[in-house]
């Protein structure tokens, strides 16, 4: 249960019509989603967690037990299902408004889509990340580190294979990253706002994203006319 906080919303229209939240485990992505949902629900925004959706699907399909504490890697799903869900999020960002989408790849999937505020969550202190996972999954620090590293390596290998073409089209050809750079879905240059949750608490992180919704003071542009890419 998240306690009530008084956030300051910028006056509409906002500079963006949708928000994505990306970040590695323990960086605070899910927590930010919960706080943004609470802050923006009064103006009709909705939240979606890709991780929670995929976990529910995996349990329903019997891919692992409902009582499993640690989070699974993307390798438990077949490629077609992964792409279907991911492209469904990209379509939602392209055609709808008022969504806060949280997943490992949501910011990458928003590349080139108008009106999307892409937020990257980081935590510069690895020990803090590990501690968060220990508390979330009820595991030892050693288990948390091993699982965190394994999950990252498996997911990255799969997604690099699945989305090599999209990386070239959405990132390299648009000049976001050089062709020589390795595929890095969480490179800060792909995002509009980068938040280090070791430096900012939950309330400060949420307010930073809300502040980014303000239209540019020089142009007055909003997502309805000239949204930032």
Sum this structure up briefly.
The chain is an alpha/beta fold. The chain has a single domain (about 20-210), classed as 3-Layer(aba) Sandwich (Rossmann fold). The protein contains 8 helices and 5 strands.
Structure overview:
With 229 residues, the protein is of the alpha/beta class. It has a single domain, classed as Rossmann fold. Helix content is 43%, strand content 11%. The chain has a five-stranded parallel β-sheet with strand order 2-3-1-4-5, sandwiched between helices. The two termini are 34 Å apart. The C terminus is likely disordered.
Descriptive tags:
229 residues; alpha/beta; Rossmann fold; five-stranded parallel β-sheet; 8 helices
List how many beta strands DSSP finds. 5
Radius of gyration: 18 Å
CATH architecture: 3-Layer(aba) Sandwich
Instruction: Give helix and strand order, one letter per element, not per position.
Output: EHEHHEHEHHHEH
The level-1 CATH class: Alpha Beta
* Biggest beta sheet attributes: 5 strands, parallel
CATH homologous superfamily identity: P-loop containing nucleotide triphosphate hydrolases
Number of helices: 8
Give the strand line-up of the largest sheet. Answer: 2-3-1-4-5
Beta content: 5-15%
CATH topology: Rossmann fold
Helical percentage: 40-55%
Low-confidence stretches: 222-229
Structural class determined from secondary elements:
alpha/beta
Domain tally = 1
Shape: globular
- Distance N to C terminus: 34 Å
Mean of the pLDDT scores? 87
């Amino acid at each position: 249960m998240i306690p009530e906080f008084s956030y300051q919303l910028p006056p509409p229209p906002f500079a963006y019509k949708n928000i994505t939240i990306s970040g590695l485990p323990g960086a605070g992505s899910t927590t930010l989603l919960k706080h943004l949902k609470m802050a923006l629900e009064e103006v009709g925004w909705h939240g979606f967690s890709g991780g929670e959706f995929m976990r529910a699907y995996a349990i329903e399909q019997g891919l692992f037990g409902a009582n499993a504490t640690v989070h699974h890697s993307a390798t438990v799903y077949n490629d077609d299902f992964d792409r279907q869900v991911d492209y469904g999020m990209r379509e939602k960002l392209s055609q709808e408004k008022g969504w806060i989408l949280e997943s490992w790849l949501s910011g990458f999937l928003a590349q080139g889509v108008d009106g999307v505020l892409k937020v990257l969550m980081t935590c510069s202190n690895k020990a803090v990340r590990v501690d968060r996972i220990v508390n979330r999954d009820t595991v030892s620090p050693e288990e948390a580190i091993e699982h965190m590293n394994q999950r990252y390596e498996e997911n990255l290998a799969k997604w690099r294979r699945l989305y090599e073409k999209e990386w070239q089209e959405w990132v390299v050809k648009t000049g976001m990253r050089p062709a020589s750079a390795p595929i890095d879905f969480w490179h800060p240059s792909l995002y509009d706002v980068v938040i280090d949750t070791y430096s900012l608490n939950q309330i400060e992180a949420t307010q930073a994203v809300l502040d980014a919704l303000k239209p540019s003071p020089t142009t007055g542009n909003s997502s309805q006319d000239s949204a930032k890419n």
